[in-house]
Design goal:
By secondary structure, this protein is an all-alpha fold. The protein has a domain of 135 residues. 58% of the residues lie in helices and 0% in strands. It contains 26 helices and no strands. It starts with 6 loop residues before the first helix and ends in a 25-residue tail after the last helix.
C-alpha cells in the first residue's frame, strides 16, 4: 500500500492542508479509501513532522493534537470533512470512535465508516456498525465494491451481510443497477441475488452467460437459464439455448449442450461431438446417449474425412476402444496439422501411443502437433535418442521444436547444452482432455 509512489501519504497531506476529500483522493475507487486509512496511520507514526502546522499558535503543534482536541474534547465544534476524514483514520481508537459521532450526516465519508466496521478496536467497530445499520440502502449499495473488499477481513462480515440483506429485500432496481458493475465481486453478488429473486428472464440470463467474462457469473446465469427451460418450446429454445451454444466460453457452451436434453433435442448435440473443448464434447456424448445414440460410430464415420471436423480423432479416443487406435493412427500423416494434433491426443486418450509413430512428429512444422507429440512422449523420454533431441536445439530450428527437445531432455534427466535452451518455456497441453 505504501509503495505506490507515496500516493496514500499525498492524500493524507492534502487532507491535512484542508483539501476536500473529493479533491484529495479518488473517492470512486475503494482502494483509495483503504490506502488512505493505512497511509494516514503509518504516516502519523513514521513522519509526524509532515503534519506540523505553522499556522497554529505554537507553530509546532501537529494536526494530530488538533484533531484530538477538536474531535474528543470540543465535541460541540463541527470539524470539516477533511479533518474528520483524518480523524476517522487516526491511530488513537478514542479519536476514531469520537469521530464517528460527527460522521452520521456526512455521506461523503461513508466509505470510512464502512472501513471502521472492521476496526480492531471493539468500541470503534460497534459504533461504526450502529451507524452503518441506519444508512439508507441505496447509499450502502453505492459502496458495494468497498463493502465486499472489507468483507474479506476477519471482522468484515457485518457490512457485507448488511449489503446482501439490503439487496435481497430492497427494490429490484437497486440490485439490477449493480449487474453491470465493473467490480467483479459486486457483479457476482448482484447476479447471485438476481437469480435468487428471479428478477431476470431466462433470455437475459442466457445472453449474460454467453457474453460475461467472469466465470462465476457465467455459471450462475447459465444454470438459472437452463433450469427455466421447458421441453418443446421453440421460442424458448431460440432465446435461451441458441445464445448458450454460440458462446465463445466452453463452460457456457457445455451448459447449452446439456440443455438440449431438457428440450428434447438430443440429435442437435451431434455437431458438438467435435467441439474444441473436451468438456463440451463430453456433454454432447452424454446427450446423444440419453437419446439412444452411441457416439462412437459417429466418430468413426467422421474420422474417414476429418478435415472439416479435426477433433473427431480426439473424440474417438475419448470414447472409443483400443481397436480404434489403428484408425486414429492413420491420421498422424494427415495433411491438416489440426487433424495430426488431434490424432496424437486421441492416441493418448486410448493409451495407444507408440514411440516410433509419434517421434517423427517432433520435426513437424506445426507447433500444435509438436506440443501434443511432446506430451505423448514424456513417459518415454529415456527412449528418445539424446542426439536426436540435441539436434532440435540448434538455432536454425523453430522455437517450438527447441522447446520440445528441452522438455524431453529434462524429463530424461539430461540438461540442454548451455546457450541452446529457448528463452522461455511455452504453455503445454497437459492432457488430451483439454481443448485441442
Amino acid at each position: 500500500m505504501l509503495t505506490r509512489g507515496g500516493e496514500p501519504y499525498e492524500a493524507a497531506r492534502r487532507l491535512a492542508a484542508g483539501t476536500a476529500p473529493d479533491q484529495a483522493l479518488d473517492v470512486t475507487d475503494p482502494d483509495s479509501w483503504i490506502d488512505l486509512d493505512i497511509g494516514v496511520r503509518a504516516l502519523a507514526w513514521q513522519r509526524p513532522e509532515l503534519f506540523h502546522s505553522n499556522a497554529s499558535p505554537s507553530g509546532r503543534r501537529t494536526i494530530w493534537a488538533r484533531l484530538a482536541s477538536t474531535i474528543t474534547v470540543t465535541r460541540s465544534q463541527r470539524p470539516g470533512d477533511a479533518e474528520l476524514a483524518l480523524a476517522l483514520c487516526h491511530p488513537d481508537g478514542h479519536v476514531r470512535e469520537a469521530a464517528l459521532d460527527h460522521a452520521e450526516k456526512r455521506p461523503t465519508l461513508l466509505p470510512l465508516v464502512v472501513i471502521r466496521c472492521a476496526d480492531w478496536a471493539g468500541p470503534v467497530r460497534e459504533r461504526a456498525r450502529a451507524l452503518l445499520a441506519g444508512t439508507p440502502p441505496h447509499r450502502l449499495a453505492a459502496q458495494s465494491a468497498l463493502v465486499l473488499r472489507i468483507g474479506r477481513r476477519s471482522r468484515g462480515g457485518f457490512a457485507q451481510d448488511l449489503l446482501t440483506g439490503a439487496l435481497r429485500t430492497g427494490p429490484a432496481a437497486q440490485t439490477e443497477a449493480l449487474l453491470d458493475s465493473g467490480d467483479r465481486a459486486t457483479a457476482r453478488l448482484a447476479h447471485r441475488v438476481a437469480v435468487e429473486r428471479r428478477l431476470l428472464p431466462a433470455s437475459r440470463l442466457a445472453r449474460t452467460a454467453a457474453r460475461h467474462r467472469d466465470v462465476v457469473v457465467q455459471d450462475l446465469c447459465a444454470e438459472a437459464a437452463v433450469a427455466a427451460l421447458r421441453e418443446g418450446g421453440d421460442d424458448e429454445f431460440t432465446e435461451v439455448v441458441v445464445p448458450l451454444l454460440g458462446s465463445r466460453y466452453s463452460r457456457v457452451r457445455s451448459a447449452g449442450v446439456t440443455a438440449l436434453r431438457r428440450t428434447g433435442r438430443h440429435a442437435d448435440a451431434e455437431p458438438y461431438l467435435t467441439d474444441r473443448s473436451a468438456v463440451v464434447r463430453a456433454c454432447a456424448r452424454w446427450v446423444l446417449r440419453q437419446g439412444g445414440t452411441d457416439p462412437a460410430p459417429l466418430y468413426r464415420a467422421l474420422c474417414a474425412d476429418p478435415a472439416d471436423r479435426p477433433a473427431a480423432a480426439v473424440g474417438l479416443g475419448e470414447c472409443g476402444v483400443r481397436e480404434d487406435a489403428d484408425l486414429v493412427r492413420t491420421l498422424l500423416a494427415h495433411p491438416d496439422p489440426r487433424v495430426r494434433a488431434c490424432a496424437v491426443a486421441g492416441l493418448r486418450a486410448l493409451d495407444a501411443v507408440r514411440l516410433d509413430d509419434v517421434r517423427p512428429l517432433l520435426d513437424d512444422p506445426s507447433a500444435a502437433v509438436v506440443r501434443q507429440a511432446t506430451v505423448a512422449l514424456l513417459p518415454w523420454a529415456d527412449s528418445v535418442p539424446r542426439e536426436r533431441l540435441r539436434a532440435l536445439l540448434t538455432e536454425d530450428r523453430p522455437r517450438h521444436q527447441r522447446v520440445a527437445a528441452t522438455r524431453l531432455l529434462r524429463a530424461a534427466g539430461a540438461h540442454a547444452q548451455p546457450g541452446h535452451a529457448p528463452p522461455h518455456r511455452s504453455t503445454e497441453a497437459a492432457s488430451a482432455g483439454r481443448s485441442v
